[in-house]
Design a protein that fits this description.
two-stranded antiparallel ribbon; 72% helix; 14 helices
Length: 314
């Protein structure tokens, strides 16, 4: 029970961090129809900005200011870059954001170097939340989980219940009508893109010190968040939430259960010949396969449900 509970909570905390990161990408795609390949780069910028701000002002001001700075950068990117390539179609958008991701990595390395930064967990959140038998669960992971759930509730209310959310959805489906009512549709799109980038920056603030802040952190999560968005269903916030939890729990249990098919067969009295052709495959442990499991899940979902778990559009 101790192993199951702690591993489950670790999986949930990792999954909720993935949701915090993928929610911004889901918001941008559902509202603008743009698959932002530079989204993970804004996550990295959030961590680096938070490190710089927390060194001067502390963690709590960084938690507020870093996402705002990342969101402002996102607004500039949309206003002066993405808006001008959108008329050339989705391929141009993908190429623009793909190139932007490399530019951001190079700029980060020029500013902060190639080594990992000592971005530490704040002292107020550094300690055990509770102890279950001999295992403790950190306060900071509980804080990450609470923050992600608050973002989920706020985003759901904003999009479904507020006037701003209704205006954003109307601007997506009927932009000419919204403009006729006196609203600036390009500005609405800019604010949506900025909000999505700000959510990525917020994930970087809380994820940078929980894991590691270094130039390769964007590449480490870049492919995973696209798996989350596609598995959950393009444009579905609920789908991104469910897929994030599934992938987080799946990978965490796979790492914790360091067993192989050969050890399972040995438990039932079946011995595998070391010289057999399939022996190397049977010796692979779940921990070794953990990085591949999200992509296997992606293939399975695409075969059975091409639109994803809760997809609403192609």
């Amino acid at each position: 029970m101790e192993f199951t509970l702690i591993t489950l909570l670790n999986g949930l905390s990792y999954g909720l961090l993935l949701f915090l990161l993928s929610s911004g990408l889901t918001l941008i795609f559902s509202m603008l129809g743009v698959l932002n390949f530079a989204h993970a780069s804004f996550y990295m910028l959030g961590a680096y900005f938070a490190y710089a701000i927390s060194a001067k002002l502390g963690f709590w001001p960084a938690l507020l200011l870093a996402p705002l700075l990342v969101g402002m950068l996102g607004a500039l990117v949309e206003c002066f870059g993405l808006r001008h390539v959108r008329r050339h179609g989705q391929v141009a958008e993908l190429l623009f954001t793909f190139g932007l991701s490399y530019v951001v990595v190079e700029l980060v390395q020029l500013a902060w170097g190639r080594s990992a930064l000592p971005y530490a967990i704040p002292a107020q959140l550094d300690g055990p939340l509770f102890t279950f038998y001999a295992t403790t669960f950190p306060i900071y992971r509980g804080f990450m989980m609470l923050l992600a759930l608050l973002v989920l509730l706020a985003a759901a209310w904003l999009l479904k219940r507020s006037r701003i959310g209704l205006l954003i959805q109307a601007a997506l489906t009927h932009p000419q009508m919204v403009e006729a009512l006196g609203h600036n549709v390009p500005r609405i799109f800019t604010w949506v893109f900025a909000a999505g980038c700000g959510l990525a920056g917020l994930a970087g603030v809380v994820g940078g010190n929980a894991f590691v802040t270094e130039p390769g952190m964007a590449a480490g999560v870049g492919s995973i968040i696209f798996v989350v968005v596609v598995v959950g269903g393009l444009g579905s916030l609920r789908g991104a939430f469910i897929a994030s939890l599934l992938i987080g729990i799946l990978q965490t249990f796979a790492v914790a259960l360091d067993v192989s098919a050969a050890s399972g067969l040995a438990y039932w009295g079946v011995q595998v010949n070391p010289d057999a052709t399939v022996s190397p495959l049977l010796q692979l442990t779940l921990a070794q396969l953990a990085p591949v499991l999200p992509y296997l899940l992606l293939v399975l979902v695409m075969l059975l449900r091409p639109r994803g778990l809760f997809g609403v559009r192609d």
